Amino acid sequence: MEDCIFCRIAKGEMDADIVYSDDRVVAFRDINPQAPVHVLVVPREHLRSAFDLGEEDGELLARIFKVIRRISEDEGIAGTGVRILTNVERGAGQSVFHLHFHVLGGRPMLWPPG
Ligand code: 5GP
Ligand code: ZN
Q1: Which has more pLDDT, 114 or 61?
Q2: pLDDT at position 111, please?
Q3: Contact (CB, 8 A) for 44 and 24
Q4: Tally of structural domains, the chain
Q5: Which domain holds residue 20?
Q6: Which atom of ligand 1 is nearest to the CA of 96?
């Protein structure tokens, strides 16, 4: 997926503030952060959204959630509260069509807001 910005970041073809990387997963800071900590965790493999995940992706998903926990600990938000969010399709707010998990924290993350 040459025109996919998250594929390009994962391949090192585009700059990002990378906080974690392994053979299957890359994590980097969101360019437009919505909280003091706002990291995007993405699989290196191009999947359009969470709806492209199948049972064969169980290990990948376990890896992703392990990485999310590790980043939360490293960023000092694991104990105070973390929102893990993935948008599916435009109506939910998806604007980059490469599966990614938002990891948000460092401020009150109550839902619904207010
Ligand atoms: P979505 O709206 O698809 O759920 O989330 C996409 C996220 O990617 C947005 O929060 C947006 O700020 C972020 N984003 C878009 N382009 C880039 C980029 O080039 N670099 C980084 N680091 N984040 C990006
Ligand atoms: Zn991609």
Answers
A1: 61
A2: 81
A3: yes
A4: 1
A5: 5-105
A6: 3
